[in-house]
Amino acid sequence: MASLLTADALGVWLGLGLAYLLTVQPGWPAPEYLMAAGLGLLPWLMSFATLRLYDLDTVLEDSQEYATAATGCTYGILLLIVSSSVIGERGLALTWLLVGWVLSIVGVGAGRFLMRRVVRAMRRRGHLMASALIVGADEQGRAIARQLKSEIDSGLRVMGFVDDFLPLGTPVQDELRVLGHPADLSTLAADHHIAEIVVVPGAMAWESFHQVLEQMTASNGPRIRLSPGYYDLLATTPRVAHRNFVPLIVVDSARLSGVDALMKLALDYGAGLALALMTLPLSLLIALSGARLDTQEYLGIGGRVFRAQTFRAAPGSWLARTGLYRLPLLWAALMGHLSLIGPRPIPVNDSERYRRWMASLTSVKPGLSGPWAVVPVSGLEEEMRAATYYIRSWTIWLDLQMLIQTLLVILRRRWGTLE
Questions:
Q1: How far, in Å, CA of 13 to CA of 15, rounded?
Q2: Whole-number Cα distances in Å, 73 to 103, 260, 373
Q3: What is the 3-state secondary structure (H, E, C) of 216-243?
Q4: Which of the given ranges, 194-208, 210-224, 237-251, has the highest pLDDT on average?
Q5: CA dist., res. 19 & res. 101, Å (int)
Q6: Distance between CA atoms of 154 and 148, rounded to whole angstroms?
Q7: How many domains does one find in the chain?
Q8: Which of 55, 137, 262, 263 could link 161 by a cystine bridge, Cβ 3.0 to 4.6 Å?
């Protein structure tokens, strides 16, 4: 946590310092600006702590952290204004505050990005790893084990399964086996130095589930994480509402609205138009070389059918390997049918295969690229988990991250492996 605090403080100071050079004057900041930045830093970092940006169980893992950090910087600059007013420093330039706010977001985001790289480098050397057990060896439990297999990304080393119905030693996933019964979980956790327990409630008897919760709620015990089976069917994060003191899970139908929808549209049309114009000469060259266009019907947002074209590409051809056969889809994005980033476009004649997830998949526009193109998956179930996670956890930062990842994939000429 000390490293995160230091990185955030440097990000804020660098952002405010660069803003001073750009908006006030070159050189060392004037005393009133130094005092404002110094007094404002502590409440700034306290706002980060309030937003749980130093909770090591949730940070350095997903792109939502960047959006939360941006919110924290917004609170921070407001607190800086308040603290400066309290001490009588009212002559601070408005442009400094505005540019400092933007650059502090960039600085903190860059610091967190570098921290992720450091964490992954340490995990490659076997540090910052935690051992985990999965309670429930059904298909969902096996899918979780496959997704956690990338230890560098997850930080978890799965030791095996605990199951109600399979005998000790039963092979389940790769080299992972059943290590025991839920009744033995406390002993297994101590023997294998377990720090995390992932519980799949639908894969075990209710009595065992209740027993697990009773056993593992002791202080200083392993952290329990629940993986409800319905999560792969939902595209929004459920929230809890109360009726006469009864907690009930509410599933909202809205996916993107308000500011989120505006940012998504701005990225799609802004970056989409730029990409379409930049690649237009290449598209014309491909067309003049004799490549024909194929037209196919896809399911769009709300289940509406639209037509889009791609260049006809034989498997193994250079168009297929590089992904350039998709270039005409950029114009479908500009027409509002596609997004730059989103779930895989589903052909109408293949819709039955995706029927189970259709309600979630059609709640947003399909994408030219998306989690299906940049996240390693081994089958349809895992692809749909990645897609519903994307829809449920969308932020503009996640889209930008996936755009960069897509570019890297194309540059490495690996697009053909993503089909």
A1: 5
A2: 10, 18, 32
A3: HCCCCCCEEEECCHHHHHCCCCCEEEEE
A4: 194-208
A5: 9
A6: 6
A7: 3
A8: 137
